[in-house]
Fold this sequence. Notes:
This protein is an alpha/beta fold. It folds into two domains: about 1-360, no CATH class; about 375-505. Helices cover about 60% and strands about 10% of the residues. The protein has 24 helices and six strands. It has helices spanning about 1-25, 35-45, 55-70, 75-100, 100-110, 115-120, 125-145, 150-165, 170-185, 195-215, 220-230, 240-255, 255-270, 270-275, 280-285, 290-295, 310-325, 335-360, 375-380, 380-395, 410-420, 435-440, 445, 460-465, and strands at about 400-405, 425, 450-455, 470, 475-485, 490-505. Strands 1, 2, 3, 4, 5 and 6 form a six-stranded mixed sheet that branches. α3 (about 55-70) packs across α4 and α13 runs antiparallel to α18.
Amino acid sequence: MRADSERFFLIAAWLWIIGFTLFRIIYSGLFNLVPDETNYWQWSRHLAWGYHDQAPLIAWVIRLSTLLVGNTEIGVRLPSILSMTVASAYLIAIAKRWLGAYAAWSAAFMSHAILIFNVGGLLATPDSLQAAAWAACSYHAARGYEEDTWMQWLLAGCWFGAGMLGKYTMVMFPACVFLYGLLSKNHRTRLTHTRPYAALFLGGLMFYPVILWNARNGWNSLKHVAYLGGANEAISIHLKYFGDFIASQIGLLSPLVFLLAILAWILALQKPCREQKWIYLYITLTSFPVVAVFAVLSLHTRVYGNWPAAGYLTVSALIAAFFSRKTKPLIDNAMVRTGRRLWPWAVGSAYLFSALVLIQVVWPVVPIPVRYDRTAQEISGWKELGQRVGSILEAMPRPRKTFLFGIRYQIASELAFYTPGQPHTVSINKWKRPNVYDYWWKDEDLTGWDAVGVTYRPDSHKTRLYQVFDHVEPPVRLDIYQKRGFGKKETFIKSLYIYRAYGFKGGLRWVPPHPEDIRAG
């Protein structure tokens, strides 16, 4: 009977994952790409070993996917959807092997309720690639500690290398795993063998081309990451951003799931759990330090809510083991009993919140003021803009000597995807920030050309565009509306301004606001 019960829960977990994968494939084609997605798609048209903002794997997998599926929303998003499926599969493997079949089902059931995993499993971002690599590394490194075989350690190394190619924050994983080894009475001797270090070397070898690319390009990726981490600011400790960080974590997980994660970490570090099941300490040290590092960083600079997302993967199995109703916890205290009472409410509220967000994206029925509805701002109007810009481009005096541009890379990327024919576009970075477009275009490539460009400002021709063009016509205003609410009322979302400019003089590249800027040079 027990074997039949375990088989039932494992089958249920796999069906849940497969069902969500199919749902995401269908759902991903129902709404426009957001600007960062079109930016990564642009990268896929300029394959390289590195990019200014991020590691290169997202571009490579989008290129492969769009070759197979086409340059469509589904084609761009398919790698992220499949990556989250891989992450879920490894999460089930971790839970099943060390925590039981019911914990595996509960982990699968709960993790698919969490908003940050739903977003990561839909949008084309490096986070989903890192999620797959983090979960896989967690599994194979755990088996490496348990069995000490070359195969498991080298598989962990391969996944570590893939994770580094996906997102730079993967660099924290070896530190987490080695910290466990140092603190573990059971497995400390593993660190005296060569296998873990061979795995680390293998992952580093896979990442070496990215290091070489950075060395040849002024370490610009490293400078960008350092800038985001507050290296350009004077060292200071304050609470200016800490509250925002905590609020973002609560929002992306749901309040009760966030609370259960904290309770699970505390319980796992208690003596009975540490001594009876080594996996509790291992899971804690492959999850909590990631969140803790970014929480500390938020005391100095702004931290985006998705940065510590990988830290919540393995803790999902821990939450399931402690708090799902049919598991038998190693200890019974007030925290365990509180968590078990909260479990159904945590999972239910997480599913409700995620469902509301996903419905709002495609069918905006929740009466949120437009200025607070970030999804409406980011996905609305790009197809209309592409059609209008395409018509204006055809009417230009020299359409073959006319390029499309945005002052922001986000607009330039959306233009590239949604303008008929998907032409190559330009981001004029002079006034904003350095990005990948600085590697693709030089002033001499376009000097003397005409252009059609888009900004959010109706006065760009007065304040900026005359610095880089001989003549600029007043803009054509394009108002974007969206049908909202149950009555499908046309609601104003934003305005975009389309410019016709003539005689490009040069000035594509970003100009540092001051020479001390860490990104300069």
